[in-house]
Amino acid sequence: MKRMSKKLVAVLLVTLMIFSAVSAMATTYLTMAAVASSSGLFPYIVSIGKVLNTYCPDYSITVSESGGNVDNTKRLRAGEVKIANSISNTDFESYTGTGTTFNGDPFQDFRILWYYEKSPIQICVAQDSGIETIYDLDGKSFNPGGTGTAASVVIHAAFDALGIHPNYFEAGQADAADAYANRQIVGAVKTGPSPDSYVMQLNSSRPIRILSISDEDMAKILEAIPSVKSAVVPANSYEGVDYDAQCISTYQGIQVSMDFTQEEGYAFFKAMWEDGKEIWQNAYPVGAGNDVPAMTLQAASTPLHAGTVQYLVEHGYEVPEALIPAEYVPVN
Q1: Which residues constitute the domain of residue 230?
Q2: What is the pLDDT of residues 275-294, one digit of tens each?
Q3: 8 Å CB contact between 276 and 51
Q4: Are 52 and 126 found together in one domain?
Q5: Residue 280 — φ and ψ, nearest 5°?
Q6: Mean pLDDT across 295-313
Q7: What is the DSSP code (8-state) at residue 275?
């Protein structure tokens, strides 16, 4: 009897080891490229990692700070990451091989899971700089956005279209904030929903003015950069900024490689919009009321993930044909 007990224990231990090994093999470990930790979007992406880990247990996702959405797209194109934050204009340019960064090098092996936030590109300058319009930036030391960010790419293209040539101070967001506080530069750019924590940081170190783009200039920008839209930063979003400011705008989203099946994409979308909705709403209150399915259809200019299409169709949304990928299989 005693020997049988030892054998039983041995069998149980072996069984446990096999089960653990199989479980480990079944779990897919991924790094999710986010944005800079100083961004107001960072808590959202961290919370989405938690949502997916909780409700899609086959995956273990670690959220990692990144150098911005252009950098994320380069890493996804190179196969270094399979899921990452993205921004609508860079998504379009990567897919079509247009724009400064991806000109002549289209890449269509990615899909959009969803877009979750409209992100105005906020052009901030010091009130004491005397700068009142974007044209006053000509020749001034100015940070166009963090190095490697979509904001920087858009600002360069927009100002080129308008014939505005600042003395660009190319740096990461943290270094740009220091340079602004130390009066080395007259202003800096930040993409994000308003109020944005980074812009609030700039304002606290040196009161800001957000430059508003005229309708005429906005029309020229939208013609030159068809992947962007316009948005308004409402008055009083920041202390001392008591007027509406019209800005160039993009949309923040989640992009994935082609490795995820339709079923997996569907599970991701359902986890975000149903099962774990309160998790990201609590972590990201500024966007808690955003209608993600509607925003996704409004912002997308490249194919959605097949699982996203399935979810939207099942819930009564009309998905334009241009956004439906070739691999999508209708589910009855």
Answers
A1: 120-250
A2: 999 999 999 998 999 999 99
A3: yes
A4: no
A5: -75, -30
A6: 96
A7: I
Using CA atoms, how far residue 19 sits from 56, 57, 60, 61, 105, in Å, is 19, 16, 18, 22, 45
What is Dmax (Cα atoms) for the chain?
92
C-alpha 107/C-alpha 307 separation (Å) is 20
Q: What is the pTM of this model?
A: 0.75
A 10 A CB-CB count for 144 gives 26
Of 250, 268, 292, the last residue of a domain is: 250
With beta carbons less than 8 A apart as the criterion, state whether 213 and 246 touch. Answer: yes
Determine the average pLDDT of the residues in 88-101.
91
The tokens describing 234, both together, are 């409402």
Q: Among 217, 250, 283, where does a domain finish?
A: 250
39-89 confidence digits (pLDDT tens): 889 999 999 999 999 999 999 999 999 988 889 999 999 999 999 999 998
Q: What is the pLDDT of residue 46?
A: 97
Which CATH number does the domain housing residue 169 bear? 3.40.190.10
**Of 64, 44, 176, which Cα lies nearest the Cα of 123?**
176
pLDDT tens for each residue of 135-185: 999 999 999 999 878 789 899 999 999 999 999 999 999 999 999 999 999
Residue 170 token pair: 């190319």
SS3 string of 33-73?
Answer: ECCCCCCCCHHHHHHHHHHHHHHCCCEEEEEECCCCHHHHH
Residue 236: partners with Cβ closer than 8 Å, 6 or more residues away: 242
The first and second tokens of residue 332, run together, are 């009855």
Query: Does one domain contain both 130 and 244?
Result: yes
